[in-house]
Amino acid sequence: MTDKDATQGIVAEVIAAHSGQDGPLLPMLHDIQSALGHVPEIAVPMLADALRTTTAEIYGVLTFYHDFKRAPQGRHVLRLCRAESCQAMGAAANNDAIMQALNLGWHDTTPDGALTLEPVYCLGLCACSPSAMLDERPMGRVRPETIAAAVAGLR
Amino acid sequence: MTIYVPADAAARALGSDEVAAAVAREAEARGISLRLVRNGTRGMIWLEPLVEIEPEGGIRTAFGPLTAADVPALFDAPESHPKALGRVEDMDWFKSQTRLTFARVGLIDPLDLDAYRAHGGLAGLATARAMEPAAVVQQVTDSGLRGRGGAGFPTGIKWNTVLKAQAAQKYIVCNADEGDSGTFADRMLMEGDPFCLIEGMAIAGHAVGADRGYVYIRSEYPDAIRIMRAAMDLARRAGILGPVFDMEVRVGAGAYVCGEETSLLNSLEGKRGVVRAKPPLPALEGLFGKPTVVNNVISLASVPVILAEGAAFYRDFGIGRSRGTMPLQLAGNIARPGLYECAFGLTLDRIVNEIGGGSATGRPVKAVQVGGPLGAYFPPALFDTPFGYEEFGAKDGLIGHAGIVVFDDSADMLGMARFAMEFCAVESCGKCTPCRIGATRGVETLDRIAAGDPAGLPLLTDLCETMRLGSLCALGGFTPYPVMSAVAHFPDEFVRSREAAE
């Protein structure tokens, strides 16, 4: 079985799993991304076919939402909050220092594919600003040192 | 012995998982058998991780903020522990609240249905199901409850429209797309007392004749998603959810505009989260074109206590047309950040300086943004404003979801105004021109003002007026609030001389 067949198989399984749901496109896209790390090109016509719509409609949805990625991301994702509460606690300078230390800009991935950096506008951790999330681990009152320690073991 | 170590995301962000692990390790090493409960948070985030110990038949006492290193001493001599706080209920900050919606949050194991029942849970649903639907709607109307998500629309009127709509299928949609910076009440409620939201939605379903509900939770809240799903499974097994009313969680995908109710409905249907023009109202043509109640988490979670205690009980709290209680979310640069539930009517000064303890940095407070990224910046001169929908409106502000973000004197207000425009540009759904293009032009105009262009300010004012009047939803329509309030209250920062810029 080729990689392409395997990918198609996974997409087909996800589609089948949600076939009984109303308005299933977002749950399908989430599940495809969680299984494959992104939503591959090959999934688009399959989704259009299953939902009896056009590929243009599927692309429209896929590109509208910040969460959905069309190319693989790093194995881990670090999200740094940029919203007002975190700014009030020095997030702008903090984030700059973290980006410099990691040598990453927003949406960049390290050359070894270990870590992607994403901006986020509020994690609901505003009472311990500035905040971050490493994969699904919430982090409060972050400083460049705490982030450095958290990502040190990821590679 | 029972030990409570919060698993709320904010407590976890401050190391509560490590503390819980240390508690379990220490107990095992000492051969002590204990029940370790991962509760929600009591809301005093500056004291998290806040651990509570309840000896068999004894008094539940608190310790915090703890690190794993503080744990052994907890077992040695809790009475003399340097971080002992006494009973939570006796602490001034906690005692001065009126906890109706958040009564159980932090107190119980969020997924313990028996504990939920023992602390008053399901009483509202039992009362409601023994009543005619119209009578339930009347109770909610009489309580004076208004939409806690920010719009402040009377909940009872919305429910009544759905109740009277003729349709074979109706829906309850819970808006849990809490994207405003400085707000976390929805998250805390879902993580700390998920059955309360389930109960509120089941009551809504009975009241309007809907048998199906959706909770649309933002993807930034993985803990809330997991806990809500687990609670729904438990509620289904206990027969609370089932054929009469059932519900599911749907996960957003990182689009702020999906907090707008019509965008949210499009997103639930699997479409781009663009705004719909109103009318038709979602109450008449909502999800999949059917009559739909769309309410915020806190609106729905306020309903069980209203049914259990009666409309008058709830209505007696508050001021003017702002009835009941509001969970204030204290955030940003504030000494005592957290969630403080109280009746409407406290002045902003009391909230920021007495309850919040002033700035975290100890520097003078310069501005407070109330109501999220689309809320106005209030200077200390407006701190005598009482917390209420109309009272804030009268000062060109809004209370929104009651997020209160404090800034000290180092804040750059032109920078904050620029950020508001930039945020609107990033998050605009693109459907209407004033928001889509206006926000980008707003960033450029603020840059011109920063560079010393005297023509910039009148242009910005005109642009904000166009966005306010011409946008379909609150994203474009309310972005002028932070921008123009910054201009109005901090005018010096928007008149930068060309010399200074060069």
From TrEMBL, chain A:
Database matches in SUPFAM superfamilies: Thioredoxin-like
List of residues binding [2Fe-2S] cluster: 81, 86, 122, 126
InterPro entries on file: NADP_DH_HndA-like (IPR028431), NuoE-like (IPR002023), NuoE_N (IPR041921), Thioredoxin-like_sf (IPR036249)
Cofactor remark from the record: Binds 1 [2Fe-2S] cluster.
Pfam families: 2Fe-2S_thioredx
Molecular functions (GO terms): 2 iron, 2 sulfur cluster binding; metal ion binding; oxidoreductase activity
Protein name: Formate dehydrogenase subunit gamma
Species this chain originates from: Paracoccus suum
UniProtKB/TrEMBL annotation, chain B:
Cofactor(s) of this protein: [4Fe-4S] cluster; FMN
Keywords noted in UniProt: 4Fe-4S, Iron, Iron-sulfur, Metal-binding
UniProt cross-references to Pfam families, sorted A to Z: Complex1_51K, NADH_4Fe-4S
UniProt keyword Translocase, yes or no: no
Protein's UniProt keywords contain Ligase: no
Residue span, NADH-ubiquinone oxidoreductase 51kDa subunit iron-sulphur binding domain: 414-459
Cross-referenced SMART domains: NADH_4Fe-4S
Recorded GO MF terms: 4 iron, 4 sulfur cluster binding; FMN binding; metal ion binding; NADH dehydrogenase (ubiquinone) activity
Family: Belongs to the complex I 51 kDa subunit family.
Annotated protein name in UniProt: Formate dehydrogenase
Organism: Paracoccus suum
Lineage: Bacteria, Pseudomonadati, Pseudomonadota, Alphaproteobacteria, Rhodobacterales
